[in-house]
Write a structure and sequence with these properties.
Radius of gyration: 14 Å
Shape: globular
Distance between the termini: 31 Å
Number of helices: 3
């Protein structure tokens, strides 16, 4: 299953979200991510997923590589995840805001979450392999100002 993971970074902070109505220990802290649709490039999917899940318009800075992630035992799936560093196009956004998906692509009930920013240095809190390539952002920090 081909997926994307987006690390949106602004001024040394990473865009994350937590699911409302679910214990943090069960769903964890996440970043925008999702399926690559038919005919869509991984870069296009990353930009789309960030917009759909957070309302933030972003552009890809660079690819951070690909990882495989075994979802078992929660799901019998192996994900091929394409990781991207993105930056917001519009710099006017709140520190914290509600977002969600009225009709999740996998089906089921409406999902709601709260988006906010954390220091990139604290990105080790990301769940379920979402932090697999966050260390690559540090490489970027040495050459580029966030």
């Amino acid at each position: 299953m081909r997926k994307v993971v987006g690390y949106v970074v602004h001024e040394g902070r990473l865009l994350v979200f937590t699911h409302d109505g679910f214990p943090l220990v069960e769903v964890g802290v996440q970043v925008p991510a999702g399926m690559i649709e038919h005919g869509e490039s991984p870069e296009e999917a990353a930009v789309r997923e960030v917009a759909e899940e957070t309302g933030i318009r972003a552009r890809v800075v660079r690819s951070l590589g690909t990882e495989r992630y075994d979802m078992r035992p929660s799901k019998p799936e192996i994900h091929e995840r394409h990781f991207f560093h993105l930056e917001p196009e519009d710099l006017t956004f709140p520190e914290r805001w509600p977002a969600g998906e009225p009709r999740p692509s996998g089906g089921g009930e409406r999902q709601e979450w709260t988006c906010f920013w954390i220091p990139v240095e604290r990105a080790h809190v990301l769940c379920a392999g979402f932090g697999a390539r966050v260390g690559e952002l540090a490489v970027t920090a040495g050459r580029r100002r966030w």
